[in-house]
Amino acid sequence: MANVSFIPAFHDNYIWLITHPHASIAAVVDPGDADVVIERLEEQDLQLGMILLTHHHQDHSGGVVKLLKQYPDAKLFASSQSELPVPVHYPLDEGDVIHLEDLELHLKVMAVPGHTLDHLAFYDDNILFCGDTLFSGGCGRLFEGSASQMFQALERFAKLGDATKIYCAHEYTLANLSFCSQVEPDNPELLNYIQQVAKKRQQGLPTLPSTIGQEKAVNVFLRTHLPEIRQRAEQHQMQPLPEPCAVFAALRQWKDRF
Prior knowledge:
Elements: E1 3-9, E2 13-19, E3 25-29, H1 34-43, E4 47-52, H2 58-61, H3 64-70, E5 75-79, E6 90-92, E7 97-100, E8 105-111, E9 120-123, E10 127-131, E11 134-135, E12 138-139, H4 147-158, E13 165-168, H5 173-183, H6 188-202, E14 210-211, H7 212-218, H8 227-237, H9 244-256
Parallel strand pairs: 3-4, 4-5, 5-6, 10-13
Antiparallel strand pairs: 1-2, 2-3, 7-8, 8-9, 9-10, 11-12, 13-14
């Protein structure tokens, strides 16, 4: 069974390393920094076989050129819509499946425009690599896509199994939960989760992975169907918000200025 571990990069990025106990080949997800990946691979005596990109932003893709030069046999998997400085070996679209045979892992591809138009997520029954679409306690900014596109992406994530582990790309959890507590101050599960997360950060530990079930309990961007969330968003916007998508758009605008 494949193992997933994190490689910290920059100030708050996580590059995800996928390995298998019986394989010398590894895969990485969103390697914005090549040097930290190369260092980890050499520490573990691994060869890079696959690079998976969720989207084109530099803090996710910036290490690709150097990694492909260092590991010329590695294959790059990315959106067919991505503009990258190197050719993509496996251009991906909605519904494709990535077969990482050496790692005994088969990941489905979900197109989730919103943060960027080329954004993809990779998932199976247990794992979700969601880049900058869903964070623990939050969601990505709308740089290229619309609120409707992001809302639809999050709705699709919410239908995955509650035990699905969420491997997003940034350590934003504590700041995100601060916003959630402004929107939903009386949610006991949220208050409890804030305490857990604060303790982890005080110990220098990552707060990820989260799970779909955890996020549905605390992440206001996955709770837009609840009357109390809608009411708080309406109070902030000072206008009625009859649909969950409108509630989501209002929350995203609120968070942008939080």
